[in-house]
Amino acid sequence: MKIFKNTFLLKGISILSSLLFVILILWNTYIFFQNFKKEERLKMEIFAAAIKEFATNQNLDDNFFIEGKIIESNTNIPTILVDENNEISSWENLDTVKAKNPRYLQKQLELMKNENAPILINFSENKTNKIYYKDSETLNKLTYYPFALILILILFLAVIYLFYNSNKIAESNKLWTGMAKETAHQIGTPLSSLLGWITILKTENVKESYIQEIEKDVDRLNIIANRFSKIGSIPELKNENIVLVANNAFTYLKTRSSKQIDFQFSSSSNTITIKLNKELFGWVIENLIKNAIDAMSGKGQLSFSIKEKTKSIEILVSDSGKGIPKNKFKKIFRPGYTSKARGWGLGLSLSKRIIEDYHNGKIFVKSSEVGNGATFQINLPKAV
Predict the structure, then answer these.
(1) Residue 229: which of 181, 262, 269 has the closest Cα?
(2) Torsion of CA 316, 319, 320, 326, to 10 degrees
(3) Are 349 and 335 within 8 A, CB to CB?
(4) CB 258 within 8 A of CB 293
(5) Model confidence over 25-58: pLDDT tens digits?
């Protein structure tokens, strides 16, 4: 328990540290953006002062040339100079071709008015020009930089979540695998004992039919133990008669279920051989039949059919139970999902893994209507 708490605390600290680090970057970026914007404003103020001095100073001194250099140095900030009548008198760093169109210049002027406050150039009391400007391309790129960092943060947190979640799932899978193998090991001891008691019963003149039923249940326990022992490892597939394997599972549950259920089994052929792991495949069939029996509350019709197609084997399991809502067709195969008060939600998820991961097939809800039953379909390729 202490190790779990320490691990949880470590995960929390690492995520919080990462979050604080990115927030610090965002804050520094914001400060840098504001400072850069102030520098551009100062640059434009110097630019405006140079224009004023250049226009009023008629002496060819050193300052005159410096002012000219300042004006020429503006190569990246789009500007428009308007006179005292708000008429455009000149512009800089705009599209040369488009600027020939007065509408384009007017539109750019409106954008500049909305983006930055104008800089005034007072030539005299009655003559005040204004410089409007837009942020430079560099500053515009910096505007999107925080959004890029936020996106990186989201992706980073998603990666962390997936990493820890996958570790959690892996740990959970190891736990379940260990429990399954230990269960198989523990079942082995009483199974050996039961086989010994069956031998003794045979010498005690016990009715043969009783002993046969006990032997069936012992065989059943042995199959269950084999199933649990195969969890967590890649099962071996062998050529098996799928009709025989399915019928054995079907018959076993039929004889131990309510007599008010009408069981029907059909197959397009008595022998259909494909590669199977009969213990695990039988487990899938039993899960589907048990779910159908539970859905009917022990009363109704249950049909099981096997059809041989050109390239695949199609298995249909139908019942007349309470049905499944359409929005839960995929959800019911998720581990832990169950509609039963005392269910674990593992039957269908295990069935899906056995069919799709081990047998390269497909299992899904073919059709269902609430109150009118459901039909599950399994497709298995002939060559696995």
Answers:
(1) 181
(2) -70
(3) yes
(4) yes
(5) 778 777 877 777 787 778 777 777 777 766 666 5
Which tokens belong to 288? 């589907």
Given a contact cutoff of 8 angstroms between Cβ atoms, the answer to whether 257 and 304 are in contact is: no
Strands 79-82 and 127-133: antiparallel
Q: Are strands 362-368 and 273-276 parallel, antiparallel or unpaired?
A: unpaired
Can you tell me the distance from the alpha carbon of 346 to that of 337, in angstroms, rounded to the nearest whole number?
8
Kindly report the number of other CB atoms within 10 A of residue 109's CB atom: 16
pLDDT at residue 241, as a whole number: 94
Residue with more model confidence, 333 or 318: 318
Say which residue, 41 or 263, is predicted with more confidence: 263
So what's the pLDDT on residue 2?
46
Whole-angstrom distance, CA of residue 349 vs CA of residue 342: 16
What's the pLDDT tens digit per position in 345-377? 678 888 898 899 889 999 999 999 888 899 999
Measure the CA–CA gap between 163 and 116, rounded to whole angstroms. 46
Per-residue pLDDT tens digits for 239-249:
999 999 999 98
Give the ranges where the chain is alpha helix by DSSP (H): 2-56, 62-73, 102-115, 137-202, 208-230, 242-255, 278-296, 347-352
Largest CA distance in the chain: 134
Pairing verdict, β 300-308 and 261-267? parallel
- 93 exposed, middle or buried (CB, 10 Å; 0-12, 13-18, 19+)? middle
Higher model confidence: residue 279 or residue 144? Answer: 279
Single out the residue of 131, 383, 162 nearest to residue 275, CA to CA. Answer: 383
* Closest-CA residue to 277 (of 240, 323, 308): 240
At 262, which helix (H) or strand (E)?
Answer: strand 261-267
Strand partners, 368: 374
Q: Which single residue is written with the structure tokens 């967590």?
A: 232
